[in-house]
Every structure is written in structure tokens, then in C-alpha cells.
Write a structure and sequence with these properties.
By secondary structure, the protein is mainly beta. It is 4% helix and 42% strand. The protein has one helix and 13 strands. Strands 1, 4, 5, 6, 7, 8, 9, 10, 11, 12 and 13 form an eleven-stranded mixed sheet that branches. It has a two-stranded antiparallel sheet with strand order 2-3. Strand 6 and strand 7 form a beta hairpin. It is globular.
Length: 161
């Protein structure tokens, strides 16, 4: 199931989740600019309605490598989704999932075991993307989390807006 299509659940507190976290996450790209942060925003793809942006958008060039933020299993891939374009979903354990959308190319298949840093695909502008970028989501028990809350040591590599 695509996490952003699930019903909206209340966001868990960062301290509560951090205490339960058994994983260490790295950013999904080595370099990029955060073009849209996590949180409420005006949706650029429709009539301008306000909604929760369930992840972060990281802009860079088409073809920029996209890597797994932690070890896990590929639980879903899709090509040419009308909204998300080409995307990959990774289950990191029974609680954590990461989603990578708007890829130009998917380089894994469902069922693959991936290690932290393994290449999943290439950045693109598929689906309803407004330009080349990665839309990245991190969820805990289905609840969206701000990915920047978990990239403590590496968040400086991503330029803030």
C-alpha cells in the first residue's frame, strides 16, 4: 500500500519514536536542495488546497542516485503511477517504511533485500512532479515522520530552503 494514500493518523512525538528506534537512517541522496519541507503546505499539483506534505522534496539533476536510508526489503515498486510516477517502498522492520517517488528509473524489484546506501533508482520527474526531484517519506506505524528529525549527523549535507 502506498503510505500517502492511507488514512491520516496523528503524528507520534519525536521523543516517543526516538526511544523505540532501532535503526540509523542516512539521507537518500548524497547532495541536494530541500525544495519543499515536511508539514502543511499548498499543494502545487491541484487547485491550491492546503494539505499535509507527508515527506520532503529534494531537488537535484535527473539521474542523481537514490539510495536506501537503512537496511530493508523492497515491498512495493510501481512504474508510471499517475501521481507518484515511478516509486519504491522499503520496509525496514515491522514499524518503519520509506517511500521514494518521481524516479526516472527503478533499479530494484519487489522482494529484494537492500542494505543502507544501496542504490534503489535514479532521480527523475515522473508522475505529477513539477521538476526533477525526489519526494521522500519516512513513516512509523503508518504515521508520517519528518525525515530531517532522523538524519541528525547528515542533515547538513542537504541544503535547507
Amino acid at each position: 500500500m502506498v503510505p500517502w494514500l492511507a488514512s491520516s493518523e496523528p503524528r507520534l512525538g519525536i521523543n516517543e519514536i526516538a526511544n523505540q528506534a532501532q535503526l540509523s537512517f542516512l539521507p537518500p541522496v548524497k547532495d541536494g536542495r530541500i525544495s519543499s519541507p515536511f508539514g502543511m503546505r499548498i499543494n502545487p499539483s491541484d487547485t491550491g488546497s492546503a494539505q499535509l506534505h507527508r515527506g520532503i522534496d529534494i531537488a537535484n539533476s535527473v539521474g542523481t542516485p537514490i539510495c536506501a536510508v537503512a537496511e530493508g526489503v523492497i515491498v512495493q515498486t510501481a512504474r508510471n503511477h499517475p501521481v507518484a510516477g515511478n516509486f519504491v517502498v522499503v520496509a525496514h522492520d515491522s514499524n518503519w517504511h520509506s517511500t521514494y517517488t518521481y524516479l526516472s528509473k527503478i533499479q530494484v524489484s519487489q522482494g529484494y533485500l537492500v542494505h543502507q546506501g544501496d542504490r534503489l533508482g535514479l532521480m527523475g520527474a515522473s508522475g505529477r512532479a513539477t521538476g526533477p526531484h525526489l519526494h521522500f517519506e519516512l513513516s512509523f506505524d503508518g504515521a508520517p515522520q519528518n525525515p530531517l528529525d532522523y538524519f541528525w549527523q547528515d542533515r547538513q549535507k542537504l541544503r535547507q530552503p
